[in-house]
Design a protein that fits this description.
Number of helices: 8
Number of strands: 7
Radius of gyration: 36 Å
Oligomer: single chain
Distance between the termini: 60 Å
Largest sheet: 5 strands, mixed
Order of helices and strands: HHHHEHHEEHEEHEE
Structural class: alpha+beta
Length: 336
Amino acid sequence: MKIFRNPEVIKTFIVYIVCGIVFVATAYFIEPKLVLVSLGLWACCVIIYIYSMSKMYKRIGELSKDINNLLHGKEDIYFDDCKEGELGVLQSEIYKMTIRLKKQQKLLEEDKIYLANSIADISHQIKTPLTSINILVSMLSEENISVERKVKLTRELYEMLSRIEWMITTLLKISRLDAGMIKFKKEELSLRELINRAVEPLEVSMELKEQRLVTNISGQFVGDVNWTSEAITNIIKNCMEHTPQNGTLTIEASNNPIFTEIVIKDSGSGIKKEDLPHIFERFYKGSDSNNTSFGIGLSLARMIITAQNGTIKADNEKEGGARFVIRMYPIMDEQK
């Protein structure tokens, strides 16, 4: 029988035999006629023990089979035969564990697919500027190239390298946020100073495009200044790129007892209806995006804002142009 493969069953069965011999011998010395009765009682106890052990080990074998099926990718695990008792509790806990393992396996598979797609997207994003760099390098190596043309090509080469550097730096920041490695500070600064920090890296580009910046800012900001200013910079940069020559960018910021609100608007053509649901997705590029867009700036901005208990929403103004609304809610200090 299969149950006798288990050492503990064999040991218990030996104990039953020894006890049976002692029981029968005692009955014989007391009254020889009781030998058959004692043998019958002993045999019944042994049969009951073997039967109960057989049922228990059968259920344990079914659990082992279910776990083996799970490990081999099969999903025919059910809760229908769970019963009361310690073995039933064990069976229930094992089933809970298997359900959790299946969910984790599914998440791991989704993460693997997401990672593969992300690597493919990154490779594609880097490939385009690298191709342009190769062309520029070959043009610079031409003989009898004029100084003016060399300066122009060198400037374009520098811009391409700067784009790749920005993309890699941004992707590293996104990966750190994904991994939960960033600890946001709680700093206090005026909203005016926060917006000034965010606009500063873009002032030259806005001046070259002759774009006008209109602000209406008051109140204080509480949060991580460096990360938040970077998020706002990415949003302003997106608006600036979609605003025509001599266009206008508007930034409004204020406080109320519930949240801090920052509204960034442009005078461009706005966001197309089909792009609105995906505007903050990683590597998503709208139908009207230019060749210099990587589709990660707005994704990073949303990650930074939401990680600080904030929200960000994009829509279009009635009179035209895109609008981004950021709301930062206070983070309650954890009680010790």
